Amino acid sequence: MNKEIRKKKGEVGPLEFNGAAIINPDGSETPITNEMIEKACDDLEAPSEEEDETQH
Predict the structure, then answer these.
(1) Over the stretch 28-46, which tens digit does the pLDDT of each residue have?
(2) Is the pLDDT reported for residue 50 higher than 60?
(3) String of DSSP letters for 1-56
(4) What values do phi and psi take at 44, rounded to 5?
(5) Which of 3, 41, 52, 55 is the most exposed place for a label (fewest CB within 10 A)?
(6) This prediction's pTM
(7) For residues 53 and 1, what is the distance between their CA atoms, to the nearest angstrom?
(8) Which residues of 33-53 are buried (b: 16+ CB within 10 A; e: fewer)?
């Protein structure tokens, strides 16, 4: 059931992690969720406290 997705040059389709996980120090796996990715992106986009202090 391998579906071929045709895209225009430069177009990115939906990401499929297919079971991506974080390997913990004890060797166990924690599945990566969409919420985890969204939080990480939000954290990267949020200005840091240090940047806020230098802009005042």
Answers:
(1) 999 999 999 999 999 999 8
(2) yes
(3) --PPPP--TT-------SS-EEEPTTS-EEE--HHHHHHHHHHHHSPPHHHHHHT-
(4) -70, -35
(5) 3
(6) 0.47
(7) 54
(8) eeeeeeeeeeeeeeeeeeeee
pLDDT of residue 47: 80
Task: Please choose, from the candidates 30, 29, 46, the residue with its C-alpha nearest in 3D space to the C-alpha of residue 38.
Answer: 46
- Rounded Cα gap, residues 49 and 32, in angstroms: 27
Quick one: pLDDT at residue 17?
A: 56
What is the number of other CB atoms lying within 10 angstroms of the CB of residue 21? 11
Both tokens of 3, joined, read 């579906």
Name residue 21's beta-bridge partners. Answer: 31
CB 32 within 8 A of CB 20: yes
Residue listed under structure tokens 């996980």 = 21
